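Ticket #4471: complex job returned nothing on first submit. Input attached below:
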Amino acid sequence: MSAPATTEQNRTAPASSASHVTNAWSIVTLREVIVKIRDRGFIISTLVTLLLIAGGMGASAFIENQSQSFTVAVVSPQAGQIVQGTGSDQSGEGGLTVDTMETETAEAARSAVDAEQADVALLNSEDGWTLVGKDSVDDGLSTAVGQSLSDYVLQMNAQAAGTTAEDLTAGSELDEEVLQGSMDDEALHGIVSFVFSFLFYMSAIIFGMAIAQSVLEEKQNRVVEILATAIPIRQLLYGKVIGNTILAMAQLALYGGAALVMVNLLGDTTMVGSIIAASGWFFVYFLIGFLILAAGFAVVGSLASRQEDLQSSTTPVMAVIFAALFAGIFAEGTWLTVASYVPVVSSVAMPVRLLEGNVALWEPLLSIVVALLAAVVLIRLGEKIYQRAVLQSGGALSLRKAMRIEE
Amino acid sequence: MLRIENLRRTFGDVTAVDDVSFTVEPGRMTGFVGANGAGKTTTMRMIMGVLAIHSGQVEWNGRPITAADRTRFGYMPEERGLYPKQQVLDQLVYLGQLRGMSQGDARREGVRLLGRFELEGRQKDKLESLSLGNQQRVQIVAALLHRPTALILDEPFSGLDPVAVDSMADLLRERISEGTPVLFSSHQLDLMERLCDNLVVLSHGRLVAAGDVAELRHQQQQRHRVVTEPDAGWLRELGGVTVLDVEGPKAVVEIVDAATRRTVVEEALKRGGLDEFTPLVPSLSEIYREVTQ
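Support reply: We reran it on our side without changes. The output follows.
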C-alpha cells in the first residue's frame, strides 16, 4: 500500500463523488428504447401496421370513388331522356355512369336484360314506370332513376298545368342544419372514436406487456440484483415506464401521421382539421392513461417469476384496458360522461366526448387532473410493490404477499 | 477499509447472520468461507444494500456506507445474471454507465477486460450464445468494469476453468495491489490457500474466525510432530501436552505454551534423544475444520 494505493485513492476520490448518477433513469430509458427499436419483431409489426393503415385507407377510398356504370335498355324517347337525367346531378365522384341502349319493343328490352346486354330496362305502361332487372336492381341505380323520373314527371305535369317545376316546388326545400359540427362529422366521429379506442387498446397492450416482460427479464435473470446496487431501484422503474411511454407515443404519432398523410393524399382535406384537434386531446389523455397502466404492468411483471405467470397476473390490468376499449366504442350519454372521469377509461372516453362536442373546457381539464392524481398515487404504490417484489426469487407472488415482504 | 460491525439479519424465526464483525482491508484479499447456509451470501447482500440490515452497520472509510459508495463497488451476486438477449459489450457499457462511467470509457474498459478473458471476438454476440463459462467471465468483467473502489464477490470462481481461474486471480491481484479491498467467498479452500491474505469464517450465522491467514495458522501452531527414541509413549504422562497420535517413536502432540515446549524437549533428551521436533503448519482446510467444529 505505497505509491499505487495513493494514486488509486486520488483517482477514485473525485470520481466517487461525481459518480452517483442522478439521472440514472435516463440511461435505463435509453436502453429500453434502443433494445426495442432494434427488435426485429417490433420493427416488422410497426411496418405492417403502417402498411395496413395506408393500404386500408387507400383501398376504402378507391372503392368509394369507383364509379359504377350501367347500361339501361329503353324503348321510348322519354325513357331515354329520364336515363340521361340520372347523370346530371351526380358529381362523378362515387357516381353512376349510365348508358342507354335503344330497343324496338318492350320484349326486346326485356330480352336484352335477360341476355345481360343491358343491366336493366326502363319501361312505361298505362299506370307508370317499371325498372326491370335480371335478378336484382342495383340500389344506387334505382334511386338515381327514381329521382330523375320524378323530376321529369314533375316537369311534364307542370308544363301541362301551364306552370314550371321551379314554381311548383318553390319554398319546399328543407335545409338541414346541426348546431355542432356538420352532418358528415357524425359518421366521422364514429370512425375516429373507434380508431382512438383501438389505438389505445393496442398500444397499451403492446407497450404495457413490454414493460412487464422487461421487468420480469431482469428479475428472472437476476440482473436486477446488480442494478439494485448501482442505482436506486425506483430509478429503474421510472426508466422503464418513461422509455416505453416514449415508444408508445412515438408509434402513435407515426400511425397518426401516416393516416393524416393518406387523408391528404386522397384529397379529403376537410376531415384533417377536426381529426387533428381531437387527436391533440387524445395524445394528452393517452399519455396519462398509459402512465397509469405502465405502473400496473411493472407491478405485474415484478410479481411474476416466469413468463407463464404473466398470463394470469396481467388479467386485472387487461380488464381495465378492455373497459377503456368498450367505453370508447359503445358507451353513450350518461355512461360516457361518467366514463370520461374514470382514470384510464377517460383516456378514450373523454376524447370521444370532445369529438361529439358540447363539452365545456373545464370538463376535460378536471378529468385530466383526476387522471393525473390517480397516476401519481398508482405509480407511488406500484413503486412500493415493485421494490419489494423484484428482488424476491422463488415462485410468483400475490399482491398481498408482496406487500408483506420486508425490504 | 470496509468494516462490518455486529451485523444481524433474521428471516422469520431463523437468524441467518448473528452479530458478525470483521474488516476488509485495502490491499488485502479477504476470503469468506463457511458451509452452505452459513450466512455468507446474506452478509454480502447486506453489505451491498440489497437486503435490509436488522441491526449493526457497515462502515466504509470510517463512516456509515451510503448508496453512492455502493454504486462505486463491484458486486457479483451469488445468482448470476445479465441480459441473455443483449449483445455482450452493449450490456457492459450499460452497466458501466449506470455506475457513472461515460459511454466511451465503459466501452474501452469493456473491450480491454473482455480481451483479458479471451473474449474479444464475442463483443457483438448475444450473451445467451456464449457458453456458461464464458458468460461467467462476462459477469466478472461487469463487476470489474468501473474500476470499483471495493469488490464484493460471491463465489466468483465457481464454474470457471483453470485458465479463467488464473486470469481472474491475476485481475484480482492487480486490483489488490492498487489498494482495492476485496471480499470473496468460495468453497474451494485450495484456492483460498493460494489467494487469501485474510480469512473470515462463518458457521451457522456466527463468526468463528477472522484475521490474517498467517496469524490464524500461528494460533494453531501448538501442534508438533515429535520423534523420540525409543518410544514416545511417555508424552501421554506429561502435563500441558495433548497427544493426538502416537506410533512407536513418533507422535503428534498439541502443546499449550512455550514453557511446556521446553519441558518436552528437555524430557526427550533425558530419555534417550530427540530426532525430530517440528511445528506443524496447518492447511486452511484444517483451520476451517477446526474452527467450524
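Residues 1-19, 89-94 of chain A have pLDDT under 50 and may be disordered. Closing as resolved unless it happens again.
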